[in-house]
Amino acid sequence: MFFRNLTLFRFSTEVADDVSRLDEALAGHRLRPVGPMEMSTRGFVSPLGPAEDSLTHTVGHYTKVVAASESRMLPPSVVNDELAKRVQKIAENEGRKVSSRERKKLKDDVLNELLPRAFVRQSRTAAYVDARNGWVVVDTSSRRAAEDVLSMLREALGSFPAVPLAPEESPRVLLTRWLASGEAPTGFALGDEVELRDPATASGGVVRGRLLDLDTDEVREHLRAGKQVFRLGLVFDDRISFVLGEDLVVRKLKFTDVVLDEQPDSPESAAAELDANLALMTLEHGSLLDKLAQFFKLPRPE
């Protein structure tokens, strides 16, 4: 499937060689089922599906991985309710208060009884590594989730010094300038979504708009009042629509029909379909990331 959000990291040319051994490195970090007395486990699963063994899938200089976790769903409220019942029962039957030490033991007993019966939920986060251009692209808008994937890659490789983006041009200033002028840079067009905030106050008013014309007096009035752009809808080359944040996270990414019409009609196999989709997706992403690196001056680490 195509990525819907892009959280980005960069790495140097010296680190690129590590990508060639990803499949071997991940072998010892495969996701295993969560045990009856465990809260969670994490590891990697095959991008090709549960029936496949390979933990990476490479097309050209792009290598896709899927980080996953299994977690037992045992809400604290369920544990606390059961603990309260047992404490109350002791108070009623024995006429005494339960000490903090005994309460801790009772809570451990509750966990030991309920944990093996709790439902298990699996979550997955896809990512790919562009060895030639030094990008790690994670399909999430959550910085924490993206950092977790990067942490898992570092753990598997021993070291992988990919770093968050360090723009030399302020994204907020540039996005605000584009909106105020009504003109995005060459190759881009304004979309139909915006988030404006007053940067001077943490609790200042927030203006959000979707499915609207951004070239209006109402929007310009907010800009004249000192609000700045924190998120802006854009369209790149009539091929990709997305919302770009001042954190340079790409959200709500969609390919237009121009791109989708280039998909093969009937791939020979699931692997062939994945090859075609990964090649198409990374090609489009690559053009977009090149432009973002140019406008916001996102240097590749030395």
From TrEMBL:
Its main subcellular localisation, reduced to a broad class, is cytoplasm
The source's domain of life comes to Bacteria
* Membrane-spanning segments: none
Which Pfam families does the record match to this protein? RdgC
The answer, when asked if Nucleus is one of the entry's keywords, is no
Q: Which UniProt keywords apply?
A: Cytoplasm, DNA recombination
Q: Where in the cell is it found?
A: Cytoplasm, Nucleoid
Q: Which InterPro entries match?
A: RdgC
Which NCBIfam families does this UniProt record tie to the protein? Answer: PRK00321.1-5
HAMAP family attached to this UniProt entry = RdgC (MF_00194)
* Protein function: May be involved in recombination.
PANTHER family, per the entry: RECOMBINATION-ASSOCIATED PROTEIN RDGC
| Similarity section | Belongs to the RdgC family.
* Protein name per its UniProtKB record: Recombination-associated protein RdgC
**Per the UniProt entry, what species is this protein from, by scientific name?**
Luteibacter flocculans
The gene from which this protein is expressed is: rdgC
